[in-house]
Amino acid sequence: MLNKIAYVDMDNILIDFPRAFDNIFSLMEPLEGAIEPFNYLSKR
To answer: Are 27 and 43 in contact (CB under 8 A)?
Structure first.
């Protein structure tokens, strides 16, 4: 079986990118409801 790779755009998909300008990038906040679908997809 071949491993498949899915690329996910994080800007305003997983993280609140506009608010990141006020914070250090390592402190970016995830968008509400974004983490659960990402975890689901990453296991498939």
So the answer is: no
